[in-house]
Each structure stands twice: as structure tokens, then as C-alpha cells.
Design a protein that fits this description.
- The mean pLDDT is about 90.
- This protein is mainly alpha-helical.
- The radius of gyration is 19 Å and the shape is elongated.
- It contains five helices and no strands.
């Protein structure tokens, strides 16, 4: 997750802190501490990073959806295969609110912190649920294959 100047490594070198995208939830205190330790240069790096970050949700969503489709092989529309796409949408929403909070720092809008935290929790929950679905689908597929070969 490092593509030139302004990547995670630069933010880490400046502050010794990671980005809020990797947290499950956010509070005003945690974001304020993070943005303060980053300083103006770290906040600029984060904004630059965010413009490149849009590719990661697309990649993980497409990969997990592809794996689920391959394992489940739905013959009709299947709600389970859209869970990774929901994670991507939640990730984009989280990124939007975090970007607004960085721009507005130090004058946080409390609702935006709540929205960023909500979307972060939904993103990580959807990603976890997607992995659980993949494991379940893999086990079911393996059991079907074993039963057919007896």
C-alpha cells in the first residue's frame, strides 16, 4: 500500500501511527490524536493516499465475489455473492467521511465521526462475513465433491 510519496510508510515515519481506515471504529479523541500527530504533512499524505485507496476496495470486492461465485455457482441471483460489494460501498463511504474530517480538522462535525465509524464497522463486518462465506462455501464444495466420488 505504498505508491510513492504520501503512502502509508510516509505517514508512519512522520507520526508512528497508522491510518484510521485500519480501525474498526473511530472516536473524536482517537482521530484528533492521530491527525495532530500526523501534522499538516501527514494529513496531506493521507489525502493523497486516499485518492489511490479507491482501488483496494474494488480489488478485494471483485476477488471475493469471484471466489464466491466460483464456489457457490449460483443458478439464479444469489444474495450471498453481493456481500463483498457491500463491503466496497461501505469502504468508499468510510473514506469519504474520513477525508471530510481531515479537511475540517480540528473542527470536527460529530455526526461525520459517527458516520465514519459506522461505515468502518460495516466494512470490516462485511469483509469478515465474506471470508466466513468463502470458508463455508469451500467446505460445502469439498463435501459435495467427496460425496460424488464415493
Amino acid at each position: 500500500m505504498y505508491f510513492g510519496e504520501g503512502g502509508l510508510l510516509d505517514i508512519w515515519k512522520l507520526s508512528g501511527m497508522l491510518i484510521p481506515d485500519l480501525s474498526i471504529n473511530h472516536s473524536q479523541e482517537s482521530l484528533s490524536e492521530m491527525f495532530t500527530k500526523w501534522g499538516p504533512q501527514g494529513r496531506l499524505y493521507y489525502i493523497r493516499y486516499q485518492y489511490r485507496d479507491f482501488i483496494y476496495p474494488i480489488i478485494y470486492s471483485v476477488l471475493m465475489t469471484g471466489v464466491l461465485i466460483r464456489l457457490i455457482r449460483p443458478v439464479s441471483p444469489n444474495i450471498w455473492v453481493i456481500i463483498p460489494s457491500l463491503a466496497m460501498i461501505f469502504d468508499f463511504a468510510e473514506n469519504y467521511f474520513l477525508r471530510v474530517l481531515v479537511y475540517d480538522f480540528p473542527n470536527f462535525i460529530p455526526e461525520y465521526i459517527s458516520y465514519a465509524s459506522l461505515f468502518s464497522t460495516l466494512k470490516w463486518s462485511s469483509i469478515l462475513f465474506s471470508f466466513i462465506l468463502i470458508i463455508i462455501a469451500l467446505i460445502n464444495r469439498r463435501n459435495k465433491y467427496a460425496a460424488q466420488n464415493k
